[in-house]
Amino acid sequence: MSRISVRGFAVASATAVTAVGAVTGVASGSTGQPSNDAEATASDSTLLADIPAGQQAQVQTASLTQQADAQAIAADASAKKDAEEAARLQAAKDAVAKQKAAEKAEKEAKERKEAKEAASRSAARDASTSVQASYTTAQIQAMAASMVPSGQFQCFSNIVNHESSWNYRAVNASSGAYGLFQALPGSKMSSVGSDWQTNPMTQIKWGLNYMDSRYGSPCEAWSFWQANSWY
Asked: Each residue of 136-162: b (16+ CB within 10 Å) or e?
């Protein structure tokens, strides 16, 4: 039973009481209008007091049910808010974890690449320890690539191309300059190894040391060569 119907029931009951009072007044000889006190009493009466005893439990049950529904709605809203916040925090944690995983994978890939390059350089150096009767240009360039920093190799290669075209036995007929770098005299390369005449690896070591010590790097040496056509 709703609040409106309960109040209506109370008003109807009060009206009935007033009507009975009016009839009683007439019977007793009273001639005035019904007192306003009776109407005030009817309108101000406690609702449950005006409801038959059998219906009071229904009214109380309806009120408790309404309160329970309101509390359930509030609990659902709070649970939804908590779930959304938990999801947001989890998404943030997942994003951080993914970023760390990506950074770790990138670092590991870089380390593997560096290890592979180091192994390749080591293999090239090991292969050069036994002097061959002759070497191809590709073999000599591979030796140089295993020793010269990658960012400096092109400058290094440019100088060798201009000096000897990667011919480790090249000899300048007029000056006697010898080898990949046209060292003058060629014997100065013996500071790196006694096999300087026949081992391109020895010549490469000497040439790289010369460029680094005199100019700072192969690219600085190449800049000087471009300006002067010698180095």
From this structure: eeebbbbbbbbbbeeebbebbbbbbee
Burial of 224 (C-beta count, 10 Å sphere; 0-12/13-18/19+): middle
pTM: 0.46
Eight-state DSSP code of residue 148: S
Q: What are phi and psi of 91, to 5 degrees?
A: -65, -40
Say yes or no to pLDDT of 190 above 60.
Answer: yes
Query: What is the maximum span of the chain, computed from C-alpha positions, in angstroms?
Result: 160
Cα separation, 189 vs 44, whole angstroms: 121
DSSP string spanning 77-110?
A: HHHHHHHHHHHHHHHHHHHHHHHHHHHHHHHHHH
Cα 180 to Cα 100, 129, 169, 186, 222, distances in angstroms: 48, 18, 7, 10, 15
> What is the share, in percent, of the chain residues with pLDDT greater than 70?
69
Q: How far apart are CA 186 and CA 197, in angstroms?
A: 8
- Contacts with 192 (C-beta within 8 Å, 6 or more apart), sequence order: 202, 205, 206, 209
Half-sphere exposure of 77 (CA within 13 A, CB side): 6
Can you tell me whether residue 178 is helix, strand or coil? strand
